[in-house]
Amino acid sequence: MELKAKGSTSIKALLVEDIGVCRLVLSTFLLRLHCEVTLAMNGKEAVDLFLEGKKFDIVLFDKDMPVMTGPEVINSISSSIWHVLI
């Protein structure tokens, strides 16, 4: 899901959070900073977004999520990026 604030900047943020209240608070904060926010409910959704070629300026991860944790996502994305670059 993508959220845009009125007069949003070109800052693209990915918010990966499984708890609804935390997702609401953090996305509201990012929107007030005029970010374009993409939401993912778990780590696998975040990895899928990167594999689809989506690019983000900032990524906020929950450390402990179902399906795939924040550190697992970072390792997976890093491996994918280096595989593409080599």
From TrEMBL:
Q: Where are the transmembrane segments?
A: none
Give the sites modified to 4-aspartylphosphate: 62
| SUPFAM superfamilies to which the protein is assigned, alphabetical | CheY-like (SSF52172)
Q: Which PROSITE patterns match?
A: RESPONSE_REGULATORY
Entry keywords, A to Z: Phosphoprotein
Gene3D superfamilies in alphabetical order: 3.40.50.2300
Record's InterPro entries?
Answer: CheY-like_superfamily, Sig_transdc_resp-reg_receiver, ST_Response_Regulator
Q: What is this protein called?
A: Response regulatory domain-containing protein
Q: What's the source species' lineage?
A: Eukaryota, Viridiplantae, Streptophyta, Embryophyta, Tracheophyta
